[in-house]
From TrEMBL:
Cytoplasm found in the keyword field: no
Record-linked InterPro entries: Ccc1_fam
Protein's name in the database: Vacuolar iron transporter
GO cellular-component term (any): vacuolar membrane
Gene Ontology terms for molecular function: iron ion sequestering activity; iron ion transmembrane transporter activity; manganese ion transmembrane transporter activity
Protein topology in the membrane: Multi-pass membrane protein
Keyword annotations of the record: Ion transport, Iron, Iron transport, Membrane, Transmembrane, Transmembrane helix, Transport, Vacuole
Function of the molecule: Vacuolar Fe(2+) uptake transporter.
One GO process term, biological-process aspect: intracellular manganese ion homeostasis
Catalysed transformations (reactions): Fe(2+)(in) = Fe(2+)(out)
């Protein structure tokens, strides 16, 4: 009888221990990065940098094809930087603001829109100010590359070569950074940006030469 009593009294304890030792299943969800959400600022930044780099370098090389004075080249590049940065800011702001108006109107027409999801959905909306600032800053940074490359070089031919070389290197960097951030093929992106920049500089140089008598 004593042994039966011991077995009866111990059985609940054993059951309790058995339950406590059961491992709990933990589900770990990995949150993947949505690279499509980077499209807004990435597009403005990459395009702004490329535009600043290519347009100012082409402008300086075009002027340098007919004028050898370093001051003329620098002043032309600086004026292009200021004008281009303002143009990029205004254009990007207007463009993204128009996109924002369209998306807000679409949200109001959506019957399935819930008020408790309003804050989450507004976070994904385009930001005109952010896009304008990113575009302006990127344009200015890109434009500074040919300006800084030419400012300390007095020799005409060397100056043109240094501007072209610095622009080429910056095009490769900008193309690579944009590809990495957007998870795109690096070399394809770099080559596309590089060829476009070379064409712009060559065409500007050649046409400026042709129109000067």
């Amino acid at each position: 009888m004593a042994n039966d009593h011991d077995q009866i009294s111990l059985s609940p304890i054993c059951q309790t221990i058995h339950v406590e030792q059961q491992p709990s299943s933990i589900v770990v969800e990995e949150k993947e990065i949505d690279y499509s959400q980077r499209a807004q600022w990435l597009r403005a930044a990459v395009l702004g940098a490329n535009d600043g780099l290519v347009s100012i370098a082409s402008l300086m090389i075009g002027v340098g094809s007919v004028r050898q004075d370093v001051k003329v080249m620098i002043l032309t590049g600086f004026a292009g930087l200021v004008a281009g940065a303002c143009s990029m800011a205004i254009g990007e702001f207007v463009s993204v603001y128009s996109q924002l108006d369209i998306e807000l109107a679409q949200m109001k027409r959506n019957d399935d829109f819930e008020e408790n999801n309003e804050a989450d959905k507004k976070e994904t909306l385009p930001n005109p100010v952010q896009a304008a600032l990113a575009s302006t800053l990127a344009f200015s940074l890109g434009a500074l590359v040919p300006l800084l490359a030419a400012v300390f070089i007095r020799d005409y031919k060397v100056r043109l070569g240094v501007v072209t070389g610095a622009t080429t290197a910056a095009l490769l960097v900008f193309g690579g950074v944009g590809a990495v951030l957007g998870r795109a093929p690096i070399w394809r992106s770099c080559l596309r940006v590089l060829i476009g920049g070379w064409l712009a500089m060559s065409i500007t140089f050649g046409l400026t030469k042709l129109i000067v008598f």
